[in-house]
Write a structure and sequence with these properties.
By secondary structure, the chain is α/β, with parallel strands linked by helices. It is built from 8 helices and 8 strands. Bound molecules: D-xylitol-5-phosphate (DX5) and zinc ion.
């Protein structure tokens, strides 16, 4: 299992967060992009991170309905993965293609209320499913337990996608899902600590 650290709660200290993570054992840096069209809150923009240096792989999670703009912006970062929300558009296949045409892995995210069968027909085209275990909008929320059966179901793979979970992941909640996921996204649990690597190890063990 790999770990992707969300820096959403560090949106006023992005440079510092990148520097801390550069020295850490995280596999990815998870960038939560919110422009207020899909969530109530806004986060940072791609422009805010474009000049920050890192050797870590970037995993961009777009929570927006303005997908043409946000995906084209995200592409400039050369991330490993760009994920957008099933609930944000009726043009799922168009945006899968837009991301793939840029040679970037494509992820499809589902909100806590969205059932897995809704994205069944897209599974053969995507590289990752991001199961939200909190309602998108902010870090530091409690893990929603109905996400456990979703990752369990998705782990029985017919196609070649990765399963990821995002929201409220900590030393306790990771145990509910670790057998079913490939990537755990975690923000506050990891960054609220001085010893980032110790926290990452707890999640991976
Ligand atoms: C929520 C974001 C998550 C979240 C993770 O909208 O997509 O990435 O910030 O943070 P924690 O681990 O604090 O829930
Ligand atoms: Zn996220």
């Amino acid at each position: 299992m790999k770990v992707s650290v969300s820096i959403l709660k560090e949106k006023d200290n992005l440079k510092d967060a990148f520097n801390r993570l550069e020295k850490s054992k995280t596999n990815y840096i998870h960038l939560d992009i919110m422009d207020g069209s899909f969530t109530n809150n806004k986060s940072f923009t791609i422009n805010d991170v474009i000049d920050l240096k890192t050797s870590k792989e970037l995993d961009v999670h777009i929570m927006s309905k303005n997908l043409d703009k946000e995906i084209n912006d995200a592409v400039k970062l050369k991330p490993s993965i760009i994920t957008f929300h099933y609930e944000a558009t009726k043009d799922i296949l168009k945006y899968i293609k837009l991301i793939k045409d840029n040679n970037i892995k494509v992820g499809l995210a589902i909100n806590p209320k969205t059932r897995v069968w809704k994205i069944r027909k897209y599974l053969k085209y995507i590289d990752l499913v991001l199961v939200m275990s909190v309602n998108p909008g902010m870090g530091g929320q409690d893990f929603i337990k109905s996400s456990i059966r979703k990752v369990k179901k998705l782990s029985k793979k017919k196609y070649n996608y990765l399963v990821s979970i995002d929201g409220g992941i900590n030393a306790k909640t990771i145990n509910y899902v670790k057998n079913y996921i490939d990537i755990a996204v975690s923000g506050s649990y990891i960054l609220d600590s001085d010893d980032i690597d110790k926290k990452i190890e707890v999640l991976k063990k």
